Amino acid sequence: MTRPNRWLAFLAVLLFAPAPALAEIETFPPSFSARDIPVNGATIHTRIGGHGPVVLLLHGFGDTGDMWAPLAGRLAADHTVVVPDLRGMGLSSHPETGYDKKSEAGDIAAVLHALGLDGSLALVTHDIGNMVGYAFAAQNRDRVTRWVVMDAPLPGLGNWDSVVKDQRTWHFDFFGPDEERLVAGRERIYLDRFYNELSADPKHIGEETRAHYAALYARPQAIHDAFAQFAAFRQDAVDNQKFLAEGKLAMPVLAIGGEKSFGLGFANEIAFAATDVRALSIADSGHWLMEEQPKVTMDAIMAFIAEPATR
C-alpha cells in the first residue's frame, strides 16, 4: 500500500473510532527512571526509558509530563523516550525567571546533553510544549528529524493576533499577584474550566485525571509559574519572528488538531513555521487529545514516527 493510501485507511479508522473510556492517570512503566537534572538555574524533573532512536515528549498547561505515560510505554519498545516537566511545572523546580520558550528550549537541550543524548530525535508536543518545541527545533534544525505538534498555535506567527482576541483565550493575559490570590486554594475550579470548556465533552476527562493535576498545580509556586508561561508570550512572539526570519523548518511535521478545537485548520497555522506539514483532525476531541481520544491520537503519532526518514 502506498503512503497516501495508508493514510486514507488510517483516517477512515479515526472517523469510525469507538468512544474512549474516561481518561485516568496511567503510570510510567517500571523500566523508566526519573532524574532531577540541574540546568540553567532550574532543576528539570525528567523520566527516561526504552532503547533506540530518541523521542522527546513535551507537555503544556493543565498537564505535566505525566500526560505522556501511555505513549511513552508504547514508544519504549523500540525508542529511547525522554519526558521532562517544563520549568516551574510538575515536579521541576520553580525559578523566578526563564519562562520565555527560547530559554526553556535551552533547558531541554541541557537535559538531553546531561543524558548523553546529543544526536537526532523526534519531537512530540502539545499546548505550551508546542512553543518550547518550536524554539528547540528552530535552534536545532539538524537534530529534529520529525515533529508531531498538537492543538496550540505559536506566538507571533500566522493568525496569532486573532487567536489572542478570541474570548476563549482570556487566560493568556490572566496573571499577576491578584490573579494568583483569586486562584489560590481554587486550583481545581480553575483547571476544570479548561477541561470543561476546551474539550469536546467534559466527560472525556475523568475525576482521577482532574484531581491529579489539581494537586500538582496547587503545589507552592506552581500557579505563579504557570502564569509566567503565559506572561512570556509577548517575548515568545518576538523570538519566534526571529526564528522564522532564519527560514521555515524543513523536517516533516504532523499537525494534529482536535475536531472540536483547531481541527484540520491547525495545520494552516503550523505551515507558517514549516514547509512539510501534514494535517490530521481527531474526531470527537477538543484540545485535550491524549485525555479525550488517547488510542487514536497515539496510533497517529506512532504511525508518523515509524515512517522512514526523508532527509
Please sum up the structure shown.
The protein is α/β, with parallel strands linked by helices and 311 residues long. 41% of the residues lie in helices and 16% in strands.
Topology record:
Blueprint: H1 3-15, E1 33-39, E2 42-50, E3 54-58, H2 69-75, E4 80-84, H3 101-114, E5 121-126, H4 128-139, E6 144-150, H5 160-165, H6 177-183, H7 187-197, H8 207-217, H9 222-231, H10 233-245, E7 253-258, H11 266-270, E8 277-282, H12 289-292, H13 294-306
Parallel strand pairs: 3-4, 3-5, 5-6, 6-7, 7-8
Antiparallel strand pairs: 1-2, 2-4
Helix pairs in contact: 3-4, 4-10, 7-8
Can you give a write-up of this model?
The structure is a single chain. Helices cover 41% and strands 16% of the residues. The protein is α/β, with parallel strands linked by helices and 311 residues long. The protein has one domain: Alpha/Beta hydrolase fold, catalytic domain (Rossmann fold, 3-Layer(aba) Sandwich). It has an eight-stranded mixed β-sheet, with helices on both faces. Helix 3 crosses helix 4, helix 4 packs parallel to helix 10 and helix 7 packs across helix 8. The longest helix is centred in the middle third of the chain and has 14 residues. Keywords: Hydrolase, Signal. This is Alpha/beta hydrolase. It comes from Sphingomonas brevis.
